[in-house]
Amino acid sequence: MDYIKKLSRFIVPYKRYAILNIISNIFYALFSTLAMVSLMPMINVLFGESKKIYTKPIYNGLSGIKDYTSNYLNYIVTTTSETDGPQRALLYMIILIISLFLLKNLFNYLALFFITFLRNGVLRDLRDEIYNKVITLPISYYSEKKKGDIIARISGDVNEVKNSMLSVLELIVKEPLTIAFAIIAMFMISVKLTIFVFIFIPVSGFIISRIGKSLKRKSDKVQREQGLFLSTLEETLGGLKVIKGFNAEKRFNTKFQDSTNRFYHFSNTLMNRQNLASPTSEFLGIATIAALLWYGGNMVMVEQTISGGSFIAYMALAYQILTPAKAISKASYQVKAGNAAAERVLEILDTKSSLEDLPNATTKTSFDSSIDINNISFKYEDDLVLKNFSLHVPKGKSVALVGQSGSGKSTIANLVTRFYDVNDGDISIDGENIKNITKHSLRSLMGLVTQDSILFNDTIKSNILIGKEDATDEEIIEALKIANAWEFVKDLPKGIETNIGDSGNKLSGGQKQRLSIARAVLKNPPIMILDEATSALDTESERLVQDALEKMMKNRTSIVIAHRLSTIQSADQIVVMQKGEIAEQGSHAELMTRDGVYRKLVEMQSFE
Length: 608
Hints:
Layout: H1 2-6, H2 8-11, H3 15-37, H4 39-46, H5 65-84, H6 86-136, H7 139-142, H8 147-189, H9 191-198, H10 201-211, H11 215-238, H12 240-245, H13 249-303, H14 308-349, E1 370-379, E2 384-394, E3 398-403, H15 409-416, E4 424-429, E5 432-433, H16 439-444, E6 446-449, H17 460-465, H18 473-482, H19 486-489, H20 509-523, E7 527-531, H21 539-553, E8 557-561, E9 573-578, E10 581-586, H22 588-593, H23 597-604
Parallel strand pairs: 3-8, 3-9, 6-7, 7-8
Antiparallel strand pairs: 1-2, 1-4, 4-5, 9-10
Helix pairs in contact: 3-6, 3-8, 3-14, 4-6, 4-14, 5-6, 6-8, 8-9, 8-11, 8-14, 10-13, 11-13, 11-14, 13-14, 18-20, 20-21
Subcellular location: Cell membrane
Domain ABC transporter: 371-604
Pfam families: ABC_membrane, ABC_tran
């Protein structure tokens, strides 16, 4: 149960519910025992075995509570039977039993009522924290992780932890207390009989513990496999066009079915182990009851050391121990399963971000002079993508990065926005290293338009508002006009309130890209980073998008990563990259006069 300590900070805000649950469970356990004990006087009344007491007993302190309670009940039964008949005495005993069972069930409900707030509160806070962690961890973290596995952890694993947490509270409070009160009552009825019962309990406990030993390992396998098939599903939905286009349905179907088959076998093994707990504990309990019937029956009929009413009440108490004992064995399995799930949840929560803000990081609110990339080197894994790369971008100027795929152009955008950190060298804004600036304030100075138009399944308005949360409709429409997007948005059935579907798939590529530009326009940042913003568009869409980009880049500092060279001919400086290094740089006119890499790239693309 180590994970409970690690997750205790999620429990603390709801500790009042835990305390109320514990108090309710104490009363539940107490009234459960009293309800069973109250059967004794009722049976004695039925069979006329009640001890006749005509004088009201005197209370002599806690040590004589058993005799006082027994004598007081017998006094009530005797006096009531004498004055109103035995039926009235029986009625009183029935009312007593009903009252005790009512109180038992009331406190059971209250215990469940309070634990509901604790369970669902912890569930909500855990999910919120994991989601917060998911969006704060660096992009590099997800290059090694499957999305489906993350989804499985935030849904299934967190739910398993919630269920396990309830099991822990039952394991340490409700069921043990029920057993403890029952045992105390059993000792009060007959010490000899209770010692006999305890011979069987360690044997039962040993057998049950043997069954659950490998549950944690098996539960972990089930959860990992769930993450795997969710990843396959997520990849399938994302790449449906490719799967259908290449007739690869059978291959992906096989991959998914292989995973679900493994999940099926792992789940069967796990569930069968869990299912074995209840019948095993019940059988062992009944075996104990059978032995008790033989031994106790002998005490009633032969030795006559215990009354029939006391023995039946004792049997009810002994059977009452079985239900919490079964619950404990079941809960112990849930705790093991929860342990495996908690490890997967904590793995995300305990992951340290390599891009955490420094404790003394400053908040930068303006861009005044230049962006400087100073002799940086960077690698994603083993091979360097950038080697000793330097670049000076003055305020108000546009710098274009061109080169073949894999030359490191997009990596520059990832490093300037600090999605990744450089291995050597540094990047500074106005002479201040971006590692010394908070990520939030750094990215507030930048607008980003990527090659893939990343839009969300929401309205056009909501997608644009990501750029500026408090923008008015007029500001949104103005941004759409600058991005050449208003011409198609105004004709949509609900205008800016139109839902654009999953990833904006109700729109064309050019329309999606113009919405991405409108989002960046609305943000109105001093620095704009355009990562191959037109490379995936047709000629007409490219012209509209290019026109929108030029409007947006006016009097703005821009780093433009381009594949189509026609889009960057007006840039103040063009940097030609080759294998992570600068091959040449200058304006379009200067580079065309040289017989270098840039001219060859232009000629290859057949530009005039």
